Amino acid sequence: MTDSMRTVQIEAIAGYAPEGRIDNYARAESFGYERKFIDEKIGVTSLAVRAEDEDTSDLAVAAVRALAERGAPVDEIDGLILCTQNPDGYGLPH
Question: Which pLDDT score is estimated for 21?
C-alpha cells in the first residue's frame, strides 16, 4: 500500500431510538390478532416512534451525540455512514 492510500475502518458504532413507542399488542388487536401472534411471530412488543418535530437527520445527530457520550473523538471523524430508507420529509420512521 502506498502512502497515498488510506484504509477505512470502523472505530465506533452508535445508535439512537426515540422515546416514543407504538404498542404492537394494541396494533395486533386492532387487526384481529392475538398477543400470541406478536410473541411468537413478531417478537417485538413495541416500535420506536419519532416525535412530530423530529426527522431522520435529527435521529442521526442524536446517534453522533451518543458516540460522543461513549468517548469517541467526534472532532476526528472523517466520515459517517447513514443507512436509511426514510429520508427527511417522508414521515418515517414511524
Answer: 93
